[in-house]
């Protein structure tokens, strides 16, 4: 009788930094679901004790909020650790007991990063450097590190994108420093229903009776679900080579179309407010320069590392002949409606709406 194949997460100790965020919560649910194997432990590392508290209760399927329930009956696999990727010492306390690290910790709000650029550098650049430096100097037996990036890191024009672009380079170059550790990145666009994204904003404005605010009629954005984002992380862990950056083949939409589909036949007006500090009209997931280093891998593109020491073999032929821009992959309103309906994100889908607006 043939024994079952070993899965990437089987008996692995998984660390998710920023694990209480929108991505982190869906990622945790799916990791615990076992589709990539049964982990030995999953540690949620973040600095928000309130979000950890409610996440712990949710995974214990209880509404009780006493310390006795939380700590005496906490599940063995799922663990919580208060800390900050900016703090080398708090990070060291969990990194040494991890086999797979998924770095989802970030300052990601574009205007916030413009007004507090040094804070964005501390989280988005120095945090990843702390991970690489600790693995290197402490010779930690971490097998895989995944850095979660954004389309704003491609041809960046704002602080958030600039710091995420440097995060990618720090992690990719880390393959030269951390022998025995495979370090990869994922990069994707606007995640449907994630905190701070456009759909929760439109939902709240529609619930209040409007108006719905649009920065410019020309604006387009890539759209993918939280599960699509997790799929990208899982693909990078399963198949990624050192220094690869995985990109989902995501559709895009005009923000005016998105507003119209969500508003439907409600008597709600839209207002053009102008682009916020640091915003782009269109987002790019793969630049024209990166297109020469792209390989097609099923539902994803993989950008090979720029450094020849990390990725000595370049693709035999480029996977793309132009940049991968949101302006070139716009879906029509019926397709956009179908995408929102399939993800239960139309206004009135009350089960998800409570979570979206939490």
Task: Describe what you observe in this structure.
The protein contains twelve helices and 16 strands. It has 358 residues and is an alpha/beta fold. The chain starts with 12 loop residues before the first strand and ends with a helix. Helix 1 (22-33) packs across helix 9 and helix 4 (88-95) crosses helix 6 (117-137). The chain is globular.
What is the name of the CATH topology? Rossmann fold
Shape: globular
Tally of discrete structural domains: 1
Mean pLDDT score, rounded? Answer: 89
Separation of the first and last Cα atoms: 49 Å
Helical stretch count? Answer: 12
CATH homology-level superfamily? NAD(P)-binding Rossmann-like Domain
- Reading off the top of the CATH hierarchy, the class is best stated as Alpha Beta
Using only C-alpha atoms, the radius of gyration works out to: 20 Å
**Largest beta-sheet details:** 9 strands, mixed
Q: Supply the helix-strand structural class.
A: alpha/beta
Please supply descriptive tags for the structure shown above.
globular; 358 residues; 16 strands; Rossmann fold; 9-stranded mixed beta sheet; alpha/beta; 3-stranded mixed beta sheet
Brief description of this entry?
This protein is 36% helix and 19% strand.
Helices and strands in order:
Layout: E1 13-17, H1 22-33, E2 41-46, H2 49-59, H3 67-72, E3 78-82, H4 88-95, E4 100-103, H5 110-115, H6 117-137, E5 144-150, H7 159-173, E6 182-188, E7 190-191, H8 198-207, E8 212-214, E9 220-224, H9 226-239, E10 245-248, E11 252-254, H10 255-263, E12 270-272, E13 284-286, E14 294-297, E15 300-303, E16 324-325, H11 333-342, H12 350-356
Parallel strand pairs: 1-2, 1-4, 2-3, 4-5, 5-6, 6-10, 7-9, 8-12
Antiparallel strand pairs: 9-11, 10-15, 13-16, 14-15
